[in-house]
Specification:
The chain has ten helices and no strands. The protein is an all-alpha fold and 215 residues long. It is a multi-pass membrane protein.
């Protein structure tokens, strides 16, 4: 990860604007389709550590109420997902994507719609906890014209849990000296844990595909 994208650098460089900048990054990760490379989990976890003053104790965010961080991050995540959904929903009917949504792609969208009708609620909630996947899921759900009210409900649950859990974990675990003294390593571990479901899924798909080919 480039140094300017490291959570520690972002919070240090942003100074008193660290919480606002972090919220914008959380929003962009799902609200803009190009936000998949932005740090999300590790940044929010570190915010919790900073609020406990166990990491970056000289930061203006030190001793910031944990509740405030959870609320700001939760709202940013919710609005980001809603924006991604709206981009997909309105994009499907735009001239830019109309030609793409015809023919075989129309069949794929129909299958995607059937998938989200059956598994969408759980998928939307779980996607919030998987980097990259959470970037594209709201847009994909919007493309299928998945029920808006159901999306809002699932999105609210997912972002509420995520926005509460990660800062709180950072706040509590940051009190452990081993974690507080190894911020970079902790951030890397969080990223690895976050993408593990995608890696496992990819390996399983590759094995299944190879087995089908050999059969």
């Amino acid at each position: 990860m480039p140094s300017f994208l490291s959570p520690e650098f972002i919070i240090s460089a942003a100074g008193p604007w660290a919480l606002i900048i972090s919220a914008l990054i959380v929003f962009a990760e799902t609200g803009l389709l190009v936000g998949f490379f932005l740090p999300g989990d590790s940044l929010v976890f570190l915010l919790g550590m900073v609020s406990a003053a166990t990491a970056l104790p000289d930061s203006p965010l030190a001793h910031t109420p944990l509740a405030l961080i959870c609320v700001v991050i939760g709202i940013a995540a919710f609005v980001g997902d809603q924006t991604g959904y709206e981009l997909g929903r309105k994009g499907r009917d735009s001239r830019l994507l109309q030609s793409w949504t015809q023919g075989k792609n129309a069949e794929r969208l129909e299958r995607a719609h059937s998938f989200f009708v059956k598994y969408g609620y759980k998928a939307i909630i779980l996607a919030r906890f998987v980097p990259i996947l959470r970037t594209f899921t709201p847009f994909a759900v919007g493309l299928t014209h998945y029920d808006h009210k159901k999306f809002i409900s699932a999105n609210l649950i997912g972002t509420l849990i995520w926005g509460l859990a990660l800062p709180t974990l950072g706040h509590q675990l940051g009190r452990v000296s081993l974690i507080a003294n190894n911020i970079d390593a902790v951030c890397i571990i969080i990223v690895l844990i976050s993408v593990m479901p995608l890696v496992v899924k990819g390996i399983r798909s590759a094995i299944a595909s190879r087995g089908a080919t050999q059969a």
